[in-house]
């Protein structure tokens, strides 16, 4: 996890024209850290909320399989489908190398051949947060539209971008700008949290600033449930205060003995049933399983299959 943060910090210094390495780009880690409508109108304003009854597809954040993807993307996607998933969330898109060596059209064809969609993708926004140049966002929306994504998601922010409330206010304005660009392209913007956003500044936090100063018509949120719990908060409390804004979830469990490690969904310490029972309040319509580490004797594909089965049979039943 620590290594990934360092990679992201380094990559944030690169220009948008530089080809980023897909295997090390953005997803969901932190050192402290189908195209479907989410009951929203074309402008992105929430009009209704989803329930677990409307969540038919269980997605996988492909960062889970980052050690395997660069070696044989076709085999990995096939095995993801065999594990039961029919949606994937991408990370690490590169203008030069596309998605693990496939351009957006080729990647879309691979997904379709395995009856998989990609409704969201994580894209690096470090440069946009710094200079506001719209070109990089436009490149993301072009790629995302080609593979059929609904959400362009901001996955992580380097530490130097988020050291004060003023920094978060700046980030919020940039998110509004990016959200407008996504809306003009027929897509939606989302922001994915870690734990650092919950660092207190007096009686508020960076996360509160992001929620309060972003336009709900332009900026959605992807709740990483693990990181919310890790930060000492209850996801349901946050959903109730900000109803309808958390259109996507990352579902990953916390190891019972080592909270900094993940484990298979249902095998850890997070009470997911109580969270899924309040899905309607969240507004969620897409969920993505993610696991950032595996036990030494665990086959990653067996792991994701086990998590899929628990979500399907226990949480969405």
Secondary-structure blueprint of this entry?
Blueprint: H1 2-11, E1 58-61, H2 73-82, E2 87-90, H3 104-113, E3 117-122, H4 126-131, H5 134-147, E4 151-154, H6 165-184, E5 188-192, E6 200-201, E7 204-205, H7 206-213, E8 219-224, H8 225-230, H9 235-241, E9 246-251, E10 253-254, E11 262-263, H10 272-276, H11 279-282, E12 286-289, H12 300-315
Parallel strand pairs: 1-2, 1-12, 2-3, 3-4, 4-5, 5-8, 8-9, 9-12
Antiparallel strand pairs: 6-7, 10-11
Helix pairs in contact: 3-5, 6-7
Structure notes:
The protein has 317 residues and is an alpha/beta fold. It has one domain (2-315): Divalent-metal-dependent TIM barrel enzymes (TIM Barrel, Alpha-Beta Barrel). It is built from twelve helices and twelve strands. An eight-stranded parallel β-barrel has the order 1-2-3-4-5-8-9-12, surrounded by four helices. A two-stranded antiparallel ribbon has the order 6-7. A two-stranded antiparallel sheet has the order 10-11. Helix 6 (165-184) links the parallel strand 4 and strand 5 (188-192). 37% of the residues lie in helices and 15% in strands. The radius of gyration is 18 Å and the shape is globular. The protein has helices at residues 2-11, 73-82, 104-113, 126-131, 134-147, 165-184, 206-213, 225-230, 235-241, 272-276, 279-282, 300-315, and strands at 58-61, 87-90, 117-122, 151-154, 188-192, 200-201, 204-205, 219-224, 246-251, 253-254, 262-263, 286-289. Mean pLDDT is 87; it is low at 1-26 and 30-53. GO terms for molecular function: isomerase activity. InterPro entries: IolE/XylAMocC-like, TAT_signal, Xyl_isomerase-like_sf, Xyl_isomerase-like_TIM-brl. It comes from Rufibacter roseus.
């Amino acid at each position: 996890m620590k290594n990934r943060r360092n990679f992201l910090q380094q990559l944030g210094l690169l220009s948008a024209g530089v080809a980023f390495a897909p295997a090390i780009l953005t997803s969901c880690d932190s050192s402290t850290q189908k195209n479907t409508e989410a009951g929203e109108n074309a402008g992105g304003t929430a009009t209704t909320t989803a329930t677990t009854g409307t969540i038919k597809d269980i997605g996988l954040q492909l960062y889970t399989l980052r050690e395997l993807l660069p070696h044989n993307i076709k085999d990995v996607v096939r095995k993801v489908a065999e594990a039961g998933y029919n949606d994937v969330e991408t990370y690490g898109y590169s203008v030069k190398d596309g998605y693990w060596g496939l351009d957006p059209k080729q990647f879309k064809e691979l997904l379709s051949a395995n009856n998989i969609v990609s409704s969201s993708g994580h894209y690096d926004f470090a440069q946009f947060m710094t200079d506001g140049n719209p070109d990089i966002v436009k490149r993301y929306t072009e790629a995302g539209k080609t593979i059929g994504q609904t959400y362009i998601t901001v996955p992580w922010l380097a530490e130097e971008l988020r050291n004060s409330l003023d920094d978060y206010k700046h980030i919020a304005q940039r998110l509004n700008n990016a959200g407008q660009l996504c809306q003009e392209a027929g897509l939606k913007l989302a922001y994915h949290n870690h734990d650092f956003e919950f660092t207190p500044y007096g009686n508020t936090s960076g996360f509160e600033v992001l929620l309060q100063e972003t336009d709900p018509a332009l900026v959605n949120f992807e709740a990483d449930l693990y990181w919310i719990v890790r930060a000492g908060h209850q996801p349901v409390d946050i959903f109730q205060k900000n109803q309808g804004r958390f259109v996507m979830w990352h579902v990953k469990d916390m190891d019972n003995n080592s909270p900094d490690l993940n484990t298979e969904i249902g095998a850890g310490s997070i009470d997911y049933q109580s969270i899924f029972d309040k899905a309607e309040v969240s507004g969620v319509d897409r969920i993505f399983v993610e696991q950032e580490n595996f036990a030494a004797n665990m086959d990653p594909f067996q792991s994701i299959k086990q998590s899929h089965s628990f979500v399907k049979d226990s949480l969405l039943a």
